[in-house]
Amino acid sequence: MIRHLPALLFMIPFSVAVSLPLVGVRHRQWCHPLALGAVAAMSLVAGLNLGAVLTYGASRYAFGGWAAPIGIEWLNDELAAIIVLTLSLLTLTSLVFAGGTAPRTLGGRVVPFYTLILLQSSALAGVVFAADLFNVFVFLEVAALAGYALVGVSGGRALVSAFRYLILGSLGASLYLLGIGYLYAATGTLSMADLGGRVPELLTSPAIVGGLTFIFLGLAIKMAIMPMHGWLPDAYTYAPDAVSPFLAASVTKVAMIVWVRIMFWVIGPNASIEHIPVVTFLDELGAITAVAGALLALTQREIKRMFAYGGISHMGLVLMAVSLGNPTALAGGVFYLINDAVMQAALFFLAGAAIHQSGVRTLDELGEFRGPAWLTGALILVAMSMVGIPPTGGFFGKWNIILGAIEAGNYFAVGAVILSTLLTLGYFIRLFERLFTAQPETAPSHVTPPSLRISVAGVSAAIILLGVLSDPIVRVLLELALPDGM
Amino acid sequence: MLELVGAWLLRPNVVAFVILFLSGFYIMVTHHNLIKKVIGLYILQTSVIFFLVAVSAKTGATVPILLPGANPVDVALYANPLPHVLTLTAIVVQVATLGVSLALAAAIYRQYGSLDEDEVGKRLE
Amino acid sequence: MIQRHDSLIVSILGRGLIPVTQLFGLYVLFSGQQGPGGGFVGGVILATSMLLSLLIFGTDASQSRLAHRALHGDGVGLLLFVFVGGLCMIGGGEVLNYAALEIPGLDVAARRYLGIVLTQIGVALDVAVTGVSIVFSLSASNGDSHA
Predict the structure, then answer these.
(1) Within a domain: residue C23?
(2) Whole-prediction pTM value?
(3) Which of chain B's residues have a Cβ under 8 Å away from the Cβ of C141?
(4) Which of A85, A217, B10, C113 has the highest CB neighbour number within 10 Å of its CB?
């Protein structure tokens, strides 16, 4: 049974997702409990899976009984187990949050919402586990299509953003598929383990270089690295409030995990073409994204848009960290990615709670907003983590990234981390200034439903927990999650 | 320069793929009508699928279906079936993307009364 | 709301063509075991037959009742696929390892055959329902809505 856990992680939400439309025809009120139960089961199985991987080591799961390189395999290693556990817990919290705000913000389209969220989380679990390039493409596209529909599920202004997201995201997926075509034409195999044996010797071939470039371009559009980030601010800002936290915490992070796998398992960390390391350009791109994202966040007026640009900036930091080429930076980058998922979810929960409470969307409207104490306290905690103040998880992530950058001798990266931290501090100070100098006329009108408070409390606890447990997690990532040869 | 052009002419598949890809990309970027953007995306995806099929083709090869009783199997006689599998899946993904994009375009039309990107942008305010 | 087509020739041809198209779709679905064909194409042809009835006779006609019924089957096909995969897992093998289907009286090759046929039927059902629902969502005007 233990060896079937990865497949169960995909099958449980997927089977509930495809049965929800049948159930929802007659009993719409069962959708929320069913979805919540499915994701709770998925989180439980993800926890068991992490325990099994830490005890017994990595394993491979061959679908249909056909082993690689003929068949399609899933690689269940520590990296995948940690990421899937994070994803399922964040999905659970998002569904709890959605239960409080859903019927109003979704415009009545309850059944499509739950179906799409379950489909997307099962497909993202598939992306993280897949050890075959084409399997990654299929699951990435399923997740992306569910994402496009989720952004537009309640209609209105979000439809145009969803259309733009669709055009750019499909362009990215086509570029990724093109890269796979080039790699297959040059090597004859698509399994990551097999490619890892063949690609490093062939790096002078134009087909391989072209293929890897196209794969990176496609994934960069999905990860929203500048300048391919244009779809993200609109999509996250205008998506329904129940959808934004889940989208912000999952889609770009999983695309980054795919790139980490390709970079370290297929290309190899020390690869170089004519003595220029392959990943040289990438950490500069990451640094530019980190600084420019935070700079753009500083100039925004709408709260959700500000948080979206903050997310772009953090993805740039992670890209920079994983491109530095040494284990400390990689572990720091992946740990920071997990932190960023939790922080983005927390920020969008808070923004959604503020909108649900008083309809506050822009910084100017914050002047009339008088938030309940738990909301302000959670916001302070998340801001501490975003900036990187101990004992929150964000501090330890940035600490490891800076250590790794110093170890690699790349002081440009250290400067980028510090600059983006200062800019993040800048826009949070701006937010707090509006919040604390507010002159509210009336007390808040709605009583916040307990589900909102539970979800915000959950992610705040997760931020503190990640900070406290940062040392064991980073050690696990360092020793076990890295491929041989680093 | 001349040998480059000669190399291109020897590979009409790849040249056709490049022309289709760039046309699809150009249509996607320059036209204002939402449906034309969708058509551009479709042409782009079709060009990538065409490239996959071109990878699998061999001169003088036949359809990769093994008839019962045909032994021994001479691999050079059959076209490579793996890119065919990739193609099938990519076509299904393409059709699903087309369905979602058309549904979104229809919803935008119902909401804003226009399919032109600039018009919709003006009505968003 | 698609209106009925005016021409008499089209109606008569439709009445003849639509059942033939459905039979052909089923044939393509099952002939995928031995040659080209299979679930996707079979499903698309089945969707085409329902789409023909919608276009020729209109959305409200009695000939289009199958298309309306098909809308409710959103996900039946994938449920069948997951069910077969789950049966394989219960039987002891990996997911979709059809050799592990516990059906008495069949050897390994016949089990794989049966597994593939069942999953292809599931895929065809789902593709057909998807095709019809795309057409319905594109043709609905502001007054119509379906869950």
Answers:
(1) yes
(2) 0.93
(3) 110
(4) A85
